[in-house]
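Just curious: can you write a single protein's sequence together with how it folds?
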Amino acid sequence: MTLPGRRPTVGISGLAAYLPRYRVDLEDWCGWTGDNWAKVSAVVGRSFRMRAPNENAYTMAATAALRLIQTYDVDPRRVGYFALGTESSNDNSIGAVIVKGMVNDALRCLGAPPLGRHCEVPEFKHACLGGVYAMKSAARYVALDGAGKVAIVVCADIAEYARGSSGEATQGAGAVAMLIEAEPTLLEFDLARGGSASDYRGPDFRKPFVRYVGQTPSQHGQIRDFPVFNGKYSTSCYLDETLLAMTDLFDKNASAIERWNSTAATFLHRPYRRMAETGLAATFLLALARGGAAECDRLAQLARDAGVEAGALVAELTECPQLYDRVVAGESNDDAYRCTHETLRALRQQPIFETEVLHRMRLGEASIRHCGNLYTASMPGWLAAGLEDAARTNALPDSAEILAFGYGSGDAAEVVPMRLAESWRAAAARIGFDAALDGAVDLDRARYEQLHDTLDVEHAIEPRASTFVIDRVGERRSHGALDDHGIEYYRFVR
């Protein structure tokens, strides 16, 4: 209940996901490439999804949004804010309104009222963090000028890397939609005690337009979107910004170690499994570094076990290294977190690694390992899988506190504290994340390489009902008539 003179609690009341059906089993992929399956399964995951030739970020977003509306019985006329977080937009002018248009076509087809003409339709872009920025903006809308309204945020992306690159095993595609409203039934936000961080990191992970030069679009207007990335440097950026965002969060809480101990579960942006694990483990070390004498003694012992100097470890965790300065100086391959990584190697061999780190990231782990990197949808996807898992297994107590970590290369991070709402189990039971994984079609090597390299595939599968596809791409270039060159036209599959 909202008390007089108090702003309403805002949070998430529903989650829905869409994952394309084409799947690459990473054990099969290791057989094709000669990679070590034991290492890939432990570090990366078990499989990843690929969009069909007639799918893009917009079609996936629209399918997830429609599922959200139908699953949670959302009255489209109450939606005053419809935001899209993505780094895979096909259009450099608009984005969210395209998705809104598709959803409205489907709603009219189904005899339901459409999303209203007074609905705001922003798109958010900051690498993989765009969805979290969209989520926070939607919460502010609901808390301020959107009284009586609800918001929908959709995160949709396509992660693709060149064959033979170090990122190939970490591909993925999919979309997750969130229902944001006052007095939520699933998760309550505590944005005032969250953490933020940002800094420019140059060639961390980028998508400059020059990559498109010379590409011929597929018949559905698709182009390959391989990023420019630098593995070791990007890993340092992820760790650095996660620690800085957690530092901001700890500054807003009375005790870092109490905040850590009160956290029942965590959900992070996960380009691959080991990076999320490393980020969370480093956060535990940071909590110890900011604790009292007992915690500092524990950290010092971990440092001794790793053979590093405790003071150097604390300096890495609590100071702000200027990583981009290293790039300018030609030192970007240096490990800015050498002591931290050495300590984490030692920590992984101890029982407390399970009790302090791994148990906080267990929920939804079995499901999310089959998705690959979903960019903006990565953390929301894990959140959806984890809450569905918790409701099914009764793994979280009522009012449990969780932390959601968002990250965007280039470089920024957000940590959002959340608390389970009173009626969270009923809302979580409707998410349907595991159902979104059903119906996968495994690609053999030839079909995978064809789809990857040409954005087309022989004997394409038929789209499922209640999804969206690219119907055709405009070809008119006339200045005397309507020019629609390159503009996609979409179709709802009833």
